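Q: Hi! First time doing this. I have a protein sequence and I read that you can turn it into a structure. Is that right? Here it is:
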Amino acid sequence: MSHTDNDARTRIRELNDAFRKNFDPELGQVVLTAGVNSLYPAM
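A: Yes, that's right. Below is the predicted 3D structure, encoded as structure tokens:
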């Protein structure tokens, strides 16, 4: 594994963690499969 690959993995991990903590729309969006979405009633 090259140093660049490791840096990219680290950056992706940081971005994913930030999104999971805040659900900031600037960082991404939440997507649910139909199966997961059907597990809970709509609120």
